[in-house]
User: Fold this.
Amino acid sequence: MNKAVYPGSFDPATRGHLDIIRRSAKLVDHLVVAVLNNINKKSLLTVEERVELLKELTEDLPNVSIQSFSGLLVDFMVQQEAEVLIRGFRAISDYEYEIQLAHTNYSLNPDIETIFLVTRNEYSFLSSSIVREVAKFGGDVSKMVDPRTEVYLKNKFDELEETQ
Ligand code: PNS
Assistant:
């Protein structure tokens, strides 16, 4: 397995995402973490912030790089010369969406193979939206995200409060 892409919104990256990144990086020569720049979806962190944070959180992994992308994932993967697409699979509730994604990507480009890594038990309840919700109301997200992300979120919500 040569080059793989792990795509997502990462708004923000959770401990579950980071675990998938670390485990995938051991399986492939090079892993590109691809941060979706979705102009139609309102995100908490800008795409630049998400990329910057992920770069910081993966700086000890020499075969991991972080990039943003817009448009179709399969087009980005062709541009990257990567044929392996990695997704984390948390629970049965992920099944419908993930199967839909995998089939769509396969029908758009049959050379692309989706591989699922099962999320570790301790992270299987985690999602970026849960993290945003808890952090927004000042709850403790230390078990959900890296300490650097925790600080980032706190500053972000303080900033948002000041502008309101
Ligand atoms: O972390 P997410 O939000 O579940 O990641 C979803 C993502 C980014 C993998 C997916 O939305 C995506 O690939 N978007 C790019 C547009 C695309 O290629 N769509 C076709 C597949 S439905």
